[in-house]
Amino acid sequence: MLLHSLWKVLHLIKIKIEYKMAGKYIFAFLVAAVFAGGVEAQVGVPCHADIFQFTPRHSLNVSEYMGNWYMQEIAGSNIGNFPAPDYKCATRSLSLPNGTDITQVSAVDTFVNVTSGASIVETSAVNVNNTRSPYTSMWYMTTGTVETDVIILSADLEFKQWTVVYSCAILAPDSYRYETVTALTRSQTIEPELRQFLKALMVGVGFRIGDHHPIDQTNCE
Questions:
Q1: Local structure of residue 54 (DSSP, 8 states)
Q2: Exposure check for the chain: N or C terminus, fewer CB within 10 A?
Q3: What is the pLDDT of residue 5?
């Protein structure tokens, strides 16, 4: 949760450096707004430290939850000016690498950079807390050196339509807390009514509507 959002942070850092070198990028205004509006408030703060009271999804069937998901909406917390995605066609493919062992999940995120058109693939190992419900909805994801707390907040009854996922990573070297919530669906295209429903769920867990952005799923291969 995730994962693709970490790519966004790296992209912001890259643009900030380019601005210092060239002094002419309009995006500097956005960088300044992000830093003034909430980046400092996110430094050194642990996950789940604000007003959020998350309830993981009860009775998550991990096996049924596997498969392909399309990322439709993303929102950030306590940033004040969460930038729109610089990627599109974002998907997450979940599988059980060890057969029926639901404590180990493989997650492969793919997306396309809208500027360069380059395809990005990120593979993560996921540890699932399989003690009892709802702990099976609380995942620990590792991507390289980045560790992310993931909570499956909600999903449809049969795990065949939609899900809403929270993720939080503490990024080095400044211990910056990068916290998002993402809505994903089994279908690449969705009806406006479903999108509004998912956005309402995202707002319901504390992520402001002004910091929501759709993820483009058009013209994808």
A1: -
A2: C
A3: 46
Does 119 reside within a domain?
A: yes
d(CA 205, CA 94): 24
- Look at residue 163 in the predicted model and tell me its pLDDT: 99
pTM of the shown model:
0.79
Cα(177)–Cα(28) distance, integer angstroms = 21
Residues 6+ apart with CB under 8 A from 127: 103, 104, 105, 139, 140, 141, 142
pLDDT band at 39, cuts 50/70/90? Answer: very low
Range of the domain at 67: 4-214
Coil/strand/helix, residue 217: coil
3-class DSSP state of 184: strand
CATH code assigned at 21:
2.40.128.20
- Measured in degrees and rounded to the nearest 5, phi and psi for residue 125 equal -100, 135
Report whether 74 contacts 5 (CB < 8 A): yes
